[in-house]
# Entry
Amino acid sequence: MKLPIKVRLTAWYLMLLSVILVVFGVFLVLRLRSDLIDAVDQSLESRAAQIALGYQGGDQNFQDVSDASLQSVTPAETAAQRLTPTGIVLDATGDPALTDKPLIDAQGLAAALQGRRTVASVVLGPDGEHFRVLALSLPQAGRSSVLVVASSLEDVDSSIHRLVVLFATGIPVALLLAALGGWLIARKALRPVSRMTAEAEEIRADRLKDRIAIPATDDEIERLARTLNDMLGRLEEGVESQRRFVADASHDMRTPLTVMASEIDVGLETHRLGEKGARELLASNREQVEWMARMIDDLLTLASIEGGQLELLRGPTDLQGLAGDVVARLESLAAANGVRISANGRPASVIGDADRLTQVLANLVENAVKYAGAGTEVCVSTWQRDREAGFIVSDTGPGIPPEAVPHLFDRFFRVDATRSSARQGSGLGLAICREIVGAHGGRIWVDSSIGGGSSFSVALPRS
Ligand code: ADP
# Structure
């Protein structure tokens, strides 16, 4: 089971803090111990130097002539000896239990005799007390001897012990307080997240207008809330557009069905319909059925494009060739509408889906032929520049009102719905064109003015 982020954060923080405190504590103890031992060594040095000074004049009574402070310490804590090169105790001062035997081993003695100053930590006496000893040879005429001074490390050990006890009790208490503080801070920092989670859980498809309250924290949490709200906005837009789409599609599908139903009703009420009447009725019904079939095809195409299922079979595509084919195919339709149609322009090639681009071209040319009206001209021209190539379908028809231009590529939009539906338009053609061109990474736009005709342009990236 994953622990809550508050607990995990606190645990990580605590673990890191314990490591830091323990490492710091160990360093402090070791450092203090070494400093204290250095101080003891220094006092041993000066004591040994003073004793050695007393022996410079010749053999005299051995005494520890340490400074006043050392004089005042108990004998168990300091000791001094003079040893023969073989390790026999000549003179001694301090606790007899310590000084009746040499304070250093044979190795230390030999080193001191060779003139090397020897400092070592040793365990002495029946209680196994820690001492620091210093040995040096006494330069005396005739006989050489070794002076050994020792000082107990009891004070050092007890200081270190006190410090360790202090750390051992202080660190857990500090960690406990830090854990509590860390947990409170993490809880406070994450409280807006819990609130946002609760608010987000309440938002369902029927409440997409709701938004999460944005905390004025000016940090990642505020950004997260804003991002979630933006996402909700986009979702709301998407759902609203789907709802409109379904409503518009149902409405548009009802129109031919209503027409068919009323024509059939009239037919049923007429006692003797006659062959001519029956044919007319069936022909009209067939037209409505064709319209519905076309609309369903368009809807399916749009749905697959918007669902990201439009697979473009890209390949080198000659736009000039496509324009020629489309014009040839629609020439009879244009003639039937009294429209003159032509193709011209420069060679233009792109990497694209030839079938889908033909669909766009055919749609634009069909529209021009449909809406321009008899006696007009429709021209398809192709062009090519450095990075782009495309085509323009222009007509000399009545043009499009400026207020309609921004909506022209919207689904189900028709400039004059009644007139257009009479001409069997679904209002999906330009929306499909926009999606196909968009899938190619291109642009589609229109230039039109009332009475000045319209020209629909498509620009596609060449690679
Ligand atoms: P449809 O042609 O099925 O109605 P489209 O999406 O192809 O749907 O076109 C949307 C609307 O744009 C049309 O209903 C028509 O009013 C207008 N339109 C399109 N092309 C032209 C044109 N060449 N001249 C005038 N109006 C046009």
Q: What stands out?
A: Residues 65-76 have pLDDT under 50 and may be disordered. Residues 367-368, 371-372, 395, 397, 400, 408, 413-415, 420, 425-431, 454 surround adenosine-5'-diphosphate (CB under 6 Å). The chain has eleven helices and twelve strands.
